[in-house]
Design goal:
The chain is mostly helical and 432 residues long. Helices cover 60% and strands 4% of the residues. The protein contains 15 helices and six strands. The strands form three sheets. It has a two-stranded antiparallel ribbon. Strand 5 (333-335) and strand 6 form a beta hairpin. Helix 12 (264-280) runs parallel beside helix 14. The longest helix has 29 residues, at 172-200. The chain is elongated and about 115 Å long. The relative contact order is 0.07.
Amino acid sequence: MDTIASLFSFITTPVSWVIVQFHSVYGKVFGPDTGWAWGLSIVSLVILIRICLIPLFVKQIKATRAMQTLQPEMKKIQERYKNDKQRQSEEMMKLYKESGTNPLSSCLPILAQSPFFFALYHVLNGIASNKTIGVINESLLASAQKAHIFGAPLAAKFTDGSSKVAALGATLTDVRVVTAIMIVMMSASQFYTQRQLMTKNVDTTVKTPFMQQQKMLMYVFPVMFAIFGINFPVGVLVYWLTTNVWTMGQQMYVIHNNPTPGSKAQAAYLERLTKHVTHHEKTRSRGEKAIVKAIVSKGRDRNEFERKFINSLTKVGLVAQPDGTVVKGESTAVESEDGTPTPAVPRRQQPKRQTKAQRQSAAAKAADDNAENAADDTDEPKTSLSKSDEPEDAKPATAAKKPAPKPAGGTRSKAQSGQRKGPQRPKSPSKK
């Protein structure tokens, strides 16, 4: 470990200087010799480092998504050149070069903060060994040795013996309980971070060996943290737990606001965006415009969640524009599963349901109308333009009778007692 520490000694002085500056601020509030002052100084160091690494984190997200996009092509290359490893690697490098992706970009945040991690470990190891390091002089060294976090010294480890722990002014039980709880929290946060990435923010339409590797890392990383954590000082555990919590929150923000296309997180995001856009009839934030712009630019290459979003806007009379805005339009075409536009079928209006009193009044009115029509037919004088040679007795009896008009639409008349429902057969003429 001394060899590794010497390699990162160039950054030991800046790290110790940042910790001392934060300690001078927190020491005025909590006291210079308290664990709160030194512990919050380490937490603030982590936050400062992670803020500086945000551009690398954005680059990591883009690289990871680019790698996910290339997975189908990579799988084809592996199957085509499965017996020629050299040609396979050459084709892989050619694919990376053509697409402009770099597999190492996803590891940039971890590689970038590694020097700070080893420098902090070297500083805390010097405090445990009673050695001044960087800008930490003898007075600050004595103050740091007095600092305890929930009864555990800042420089104590899980594997330390009782004599070394007693020299730091603590008991072995306190040190092991505190370090064990912090190791469990550190491993659990790492597992949850990887799990939400695999279950929510991964394109479920692509099944490749890369997915299997990520699932395996979901269980390997927590075990590695648990094994290595027993050799970390309490201050380093505070550092690593803080950076894991930061990563978890940062990833939750990305999953919620900028999910991977084709993932479950994108389906949930587009559902929320649909409700928001249909309610306000516009996109308000820059992030929403960027998402809509990316969906419109895909055209027929949209996935099922993106087509559902476009169809939902079309059904309410809204059209997504290439610049990411949403306006009212007359488009009535919706996209099918293969991306081809088809005319939307207008929704049929259902008639309003009438109450029982309204139906009874309508039936009574229809019955009155039928009675009036029947009376008018009987009172009307019979006229004829041409005389008939046939005697009136020879005419069928039903010829003089007109069928009663049907009731008005939407009403039902009750059949008379003793009659069958439905159309009645005409009576045969009487024989004389």
